[in-house]
Amino acid sequence: MKKKLTILHSNDMHGAFLPVTGRNNVMTGGLSRLSGYVRQVRAEEENVIYLNAGDMFRGSVIDSEYMGLSTIELMNLLAPDVSTIGNHEVDYGIAHLLFLEKCAHFPIINADLFITLNNARLFSPYINLEVGGMRVMVVGLLTEEVMASTKSEKVIGTYIDVAEAAKEVGIMADNYRTKETDIFILLTHVGIEKDRELASLLNPEWGVDLIIGGHSHTLMEEMETVNGIPIVQAGTGTGQIGRFDIEYDDEEKKITAIKWYTQVINEFTAPEDPVITEMVDRFKTQTDAKYRRVVTNFARELTHPSRIQETEMGNLYADLLQWESSFDIMMMGSGAIRKKAMGPIVEYQDMIENTPFDDALYMIKVTGEEFRRMISYVFRDEAWEGHTEFYQYSKGVRIVYRKSTRSFEELSFRGKEIEDGDEFLIALQNYHYNNFEDFFNVPFEPVKKRMRPRVVATSVNNIVEEFFTTHPGLDAHVEGRIVILD
Q: How many Cα atoms sit within 13 Å of 45 on the Cβ side?
């Protein structure tokens, strides 16, 4: 007997609760229309499940103001059948995440977050969903980057490479996949490259049918197949949703037909969900009073189109944090700047949403040789896929790097080529400071011995807001600080 199953999936929504004006002035996305589409499909199709592949949190003041509780309340209305954890789910701390899980009316699964003292898992590793007489087993897997966000929480661990994650899938299959399991799905938050690597390592006997992923914000035109396993991801935000239409043979116990695509969510493709519209409006009304004040005006709209290149906003932020400081170079994490464009009018809401990771600023002293090794590691081949940490540099730094030879044609500061024996005071946000060795592949002990690391600011956004307020008409340009050849 052949059965039909529709699987809807989202990932990396990042608090994109409100619709935006898209091409041809069409209102696109928003949680209300996303919910409207899910409800519409549930009404039209007999067997439907809806999965979320992580990173519900961060990206909007509605989320930040309530530390994710507003997001959980809205997700309860959206009602996914199951969600896995993304790296930003731990931004408010593991303890707070466990509190938010108690507030969720939907299951949150993860197989590889554990307490290091006794190896006890923090979450249920899998769930069996019963739909239309089919049993769908879903296992949640998380990116190794969660370790970067939880460095201060020493009792929390995770399997940190893909080989260990693949091994964990085998454990799940051997222990919990039974003859009653019809379809086996990995709901991951590891990025498209790691999904491909993971698929290649999976034993076909484990019976994994699909990998539905997130983290790299990859908007795919068609599903990829690696080691016989389809891999999909649905971009970021709420402007689209992934959709599988599957035919399953109940007698042969296998998928006999499969179709996948992404469905655009806009005013023509999806109705509004009035309950979510009302809930979002309530949150927005409360946050608008606090956040809808003008902080500054730029000379024009400034952009940050890609995290792996020098950008206008990257230069602006790196420069303002270094201005009149006690350090030589500000290394601003590209991923810490969240908007692709901002201005010319900048409200407090824009400012907070653009740099939501408001943490301390640390100053350390590195040699020229260490700085070269740091930048060389940042520019490794993997970086150009956009999945590693990348940086924007304050005025005075010039990097000319040739990808084909993996070499610098210039690495200078204030017009002088950097020598091994030079010393520089550099500043990093707390997240990057805590993960210095992982992000730069340079031993940290010699750096700490050279000069005791020092907190030079307790809040990056305190500096940003003060600078914005006192410097109207700000402008910034791409100046050739980072030049990538080939």
A: 23
By residue count, the chain amounts to 486
Residues 6 and 108 reside in one and the same domain: yes
pLDDT tens-digit profile of 345-381?
999 999 999 999 899 999 999 999 999 999 999 999 9
Cβ–Cβ under 8 Å, residues 277 and 78: no
What total of structural domains would you count in the chain? 2
Q: How far is CA 207 from CA 5, 178, 188, 294, in A?
A: 18, 10, 16, 55
What separation in angstroms does the CA of 214 have from each of 83, 180, 396, 446, 455?
11, 28, 36, 37, 34
Cα–Cα distance measured from residue 485 to residue 410, given in angstroms and rounded to the nearest whole number:
11
| Domain finish residue from 243, 258, 285 | 285
| Amino acid identity for residue 186 in this structure | L
Mean pLDDT of 213-230: 96
pLDDT band at 329 (very low <50, low <70, confident <90, very high): very high
Same domain, 167 and 31: yes
Q: 3: closest CA among 257, 324, 302?
A: 257
Q: What angle do CA 96, 361, 297 make, to 5 degrees?
A: 95
On whether the CB atoms of residues 470 and 382 are closer than 8 A, the answer is no
Question: Does 327 share its domain with 229?
Answer: no
> pLDDT tens digits for 412-429?
999 999 999 999 999 999
Cα gap 30→265, rounded to integer Å: 8
Strand partners, 318: none
Same domain, yes or no, for 273 and 305? Answer: no
290 domain-assigned = no
Q: Closest Cα to residue 464, out of 331, 343, 319? A: 319
Residue where one domain finishes, among candidates 253, 285, 317? 285
Can you give the pTM of this predicted structure?
0.79
Shared domain for 254 and 311, answered yes or no, is no
**What percentage of the chain carries pLDDT values higher than 70?**
96
Domain shared by 106 and 224, yes or no? yes
Query: Tell me, what's the pLDDT at 160?
Result: 59
Q: pLDDT per residue over 240-281, tens digit each?
A: 999 999 999 999 999 999 999 999 999 999 999 999 999 999
d(CA 104, CA 108): 8
Round the CA-based radius of gyration of the chain to a whole number and report it.
23
Range of the domain at 182: 2-285
